[in-house]
């Protein structure tokens, strides 16, 4: 709920004090989680059972549905593959909720970095605007982007393997080996390089997100790679299902599907005037 | 981005958008205007693209999101683009055809990702701008460019988006104006300036939209959004919802132009794909 709604009838000084406390708590939460993340290694081993989740993009009410589908933390162990922010209304609530879960149960939730966990990207796709709209300044954005810098790039289910990079932008595609990505960042990679990578590193499966999937999840390349997408009815138009991938153990996986929560279970933000129209 | 903002291409592009904006001020789509041969040929080109959609129905194949038949449709355009442009450009200007054809190909979405966004729309505006620069389209064609050609382009794009279930390309979600289009909101709001009874607050009224969408591009856009998106308008199109509270169409129009410059033209993820050439050059503006 927006703080503004809470302040009807409240003296101005009290509302300002509450906001000041919010920023203080948020800054402390971000610093606390930064310290936790710095303790984790670049290649973080995670034990099964674990549930792997894809893009959320500020769809907070749908994130709640995700937890109802997969089980609450700490009962269920989770890995989130990034893209918590941008596009949706509630990037701030989404990210800070996940941070709070991480702070409380650090070994029951792993947060990875997506391509949207970046200062440049969040200034284009909405997270920065959300922080400005809600609080009139960029403080919240600044504290959160500090955490982005430290988020892990990847995890691995208890097997050693070599480091790799640039995966936050790349996509699997039916190409021969590598190809230029139409996104203008990252690459397209095909079955051959995926097979090679999986073989050399003795992996069973590459889990990734980053691309909208109508059915919520999609296996490719002879089931060596899976895209998991966790934002249902993306942009209120795509009508897609969302999914999370439940790993009982390294060999046993099961997708769990969920839909966007009905309109009656959402709160619409109040009307505002964008600076362009003043 | 600095180089782009100071470039001849930027100056020409924004000049083109603003000139057309003035040209359609206060006019309905049914306004009487001259239709030149070049305009007719462009409409015929767009009709061909439309026909190809009918000839390339969606396929029943597993896909991530968009329908793969789009790639077949795009393949036709890729192959035929220069021929199509050659039907519009007189033979003595044939040298311009390859360059102009690139903008046409860029204006219909991306074949690999099966997506479409305001960058693709800008490529179509650039295509039209190029045709003006080489003299195929003239000052007289101003109104027809928006009301006949661009409007037809929008119809074809909407058909593509629906038929092949295209993904929004680089959408700003609830923080953006719309997942797919921007220019028809700018020119559309200019149409409504000084309207005797329709105010911005009316565009969120279903009855007002149903009664007037055939005359006004802005309302046609709203109608399409309400057709394609689910849930309350205030939720799925919050920026537009906010804009409906602006007191006048004139203010809406000015605000949208500012927003277009800031959110589309000055954002790297959009402009990184923009093509520069001899007609829309990257070199700095040369003073007259």
TrEMBL record, chain A:
Coiled coil: none annotated. It is an enzyme of class 3 (hydrolase). Its cofactor is Mn(2+). GO terms for molecular function: metal ion binding; protein serine/threonine phosphatase activity. InterPro entries: Calcineurin-like_PHP, Metallo-depent_PP-like, PPA2-like, Ser/Thr-sp_prot-phosphatase. It catalyses: O-phospho-L-threonyl-[protein] + H2O = L-threonyl-[protein] + phosphate. Residues 112-117 form the Serine/threonine specific protein phosphatases domain. It comes from the Eukaryota. PROSITE patterns: SER_THR_PHOSPHATASE (PS00125). It holds the Pfam family Metallophos. SMART domains: PP2Ac. Keywords: Hydrolase, Manganese, Metal-binding, Protein phosphatase. Its EC number is 3.1.3.16. Belongs to the PPP phosphatase family. This is Serine/threonine-protein phosphatase.
UniProtKB/TrEMBL annotation, chain B:
One of its GO terms (molecular function) is metal ion binding. Its EC number is 5.2.1.8. Keywords: Acetylation, ATP-binding, Cytoplasm, Isomerase, Magnesium, Metal-binding, Nucleotide-binding, Nucleus, Rotamase. It catalyses: [protein]-peptidylproline (omega=180) = [protein]-peptidylproline (omega=0). The keyword Transcription regulation does not apply. GO terms for cellular component: cytoplasm; nucleus; protein phosphatase type 2A complex. GO terms for biological process: mitotic spindle organization. It is found in: Cytoplasm; Nucleus. It holds the Pfam family PTPA. Its main location: cytoplasm. PPIases accelerate the folding of proteins. It catalyzes the cis-trans isomerization of proline imidic peptide bonds in oligopeptides. Acts as a regulatory subunit for serine/threonine-protein phosphatase 2A (PP2A). Modulates PP2A activity or substrate specificity, probably by inducing a conformational change in the catalytic subunit, a proposed direct target of the PPIase. Can reactivate inactive phosphatase PP2A-phosphatase methylesterase complexes (PP2A(i)) in presence of ATP and Mg(2+). PANTHER family: SERINE/THREONINE-PROTEIN PHOSPHATASE 2A REGULATORY SUBUNIT B, SERINE_THREONINE-PROTEIN PHOSPHATASE 2A ACTIVATOR. Belongs to the PTPA-type PPIase family. This is Serine/threonine-protein phosphatase 2A activator.
């Amino acid at each position: 709920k927006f703080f503004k709604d809470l302040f009807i009838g409240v003296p101005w000084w009290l509302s300002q004090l509450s906001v000041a406390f919010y920023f203080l708590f948020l800054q402390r939460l971000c610093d606390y989680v930064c310290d936790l993340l710095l303790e984790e290694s670049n290649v973080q081993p995670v034990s099964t059972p674990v549930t792997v989740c894809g893009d959320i993009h500020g769809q907070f009410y749908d994130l709640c549905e995700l937890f109802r589908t997969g089980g609450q933390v700490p009962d269920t162990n989770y890995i989130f593959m990034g893209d918590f922010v941008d596009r949706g209304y509630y990037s701030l609530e989404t990210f800070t909720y996940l941070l709070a879960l991480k702070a409380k149960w650090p070994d029951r939730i792993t947060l990875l970095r997506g391509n949207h966990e970046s200062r440049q990207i969040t200034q284009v796709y909405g997270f920065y605007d959300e922080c400005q709209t809600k609080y009139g300044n960029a403080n919240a954005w600044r504290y959160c982007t500090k955490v982005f810098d430290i988020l892990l790039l990847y995890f691995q289910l208890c097997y050693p393997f070599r480091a790799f990079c640039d995966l936050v932008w790349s996509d699997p595609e039916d190409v021969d080996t590598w190809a230029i990505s139409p996104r203008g960042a990252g690459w397209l990679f095909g079955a051959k390089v995926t097979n090679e990578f999986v073989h050399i590193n003795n992996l069973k499966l590459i889990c990734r997100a980053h691309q909208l999937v109508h059915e919520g999840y999609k296996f490719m390349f002879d089931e060596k790679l899976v895209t998991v997408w966790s934002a249902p009815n993306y942009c209120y138009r795509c009508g897609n299902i969302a999914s999370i991938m439940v790993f009982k153990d390294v060999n046993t996986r099961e997708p769990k599907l969920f839909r966007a929560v009905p309109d009656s279970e959402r709160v619409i933000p109040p009307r505002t005037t964008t600076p362009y129209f003043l | 981005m600095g180089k782009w903002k100071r470039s001849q291409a930027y100056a020409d592009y924004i000049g083109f958008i603003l000139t057309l904006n003035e040209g359609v001020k206060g006019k309905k789509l049914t306004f009487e205007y001259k239709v030149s041969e070049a305009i007719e040929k462009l409409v015929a080109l767009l009709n061909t693209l439309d026909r190809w959609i009918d000839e390339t129905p969606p396929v029943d194949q597993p896909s991530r999101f968009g329908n793969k038949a789009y790639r077949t449709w795009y393949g036709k355009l890729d192959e035929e683009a220069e021929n199509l442009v050659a039907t519009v450009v007189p033979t003595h200007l044939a040298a311009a055809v390859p360059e102009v054809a690139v903008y046409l190909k860029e204006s219909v979405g991306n074949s690999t990702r099966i997506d479409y966004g305001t960058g693709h729309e800008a490529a179509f505006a650039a295509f039209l701008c190029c045709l003006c620069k080489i003299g195929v389209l003239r000052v007289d064609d101003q109104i027809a460019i928006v009301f006949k050609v661009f409007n037809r382009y929008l119809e074809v794009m909407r058909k593509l988006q629906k038929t092949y279930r295209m993904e929004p390309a680089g959408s700003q979600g609830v923080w953006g104006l719309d997942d797919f289009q921007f220019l028809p909101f700018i020119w559309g709001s200019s149409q409504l300036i000084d309207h005797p009874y329709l105010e911005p607050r009316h565009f969120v009224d279903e009855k007002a939209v149903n009664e007037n969408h055939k005359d006004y591009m802005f309302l046609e856009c709203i109608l399409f959004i309400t057709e394609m998106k689910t849930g309350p308008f205030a939720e799925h199109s919050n920026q537009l919802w906010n804009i409906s509270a602006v007191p006048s169409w004139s203010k809406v129009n000015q605000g949208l132009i500012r927003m277009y410059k800031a959110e589309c033209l000055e954002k790297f993820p959009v402009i990184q794909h923009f093509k520069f050439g001899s007609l829309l050059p990257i070199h700095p503006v040369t003073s007259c």
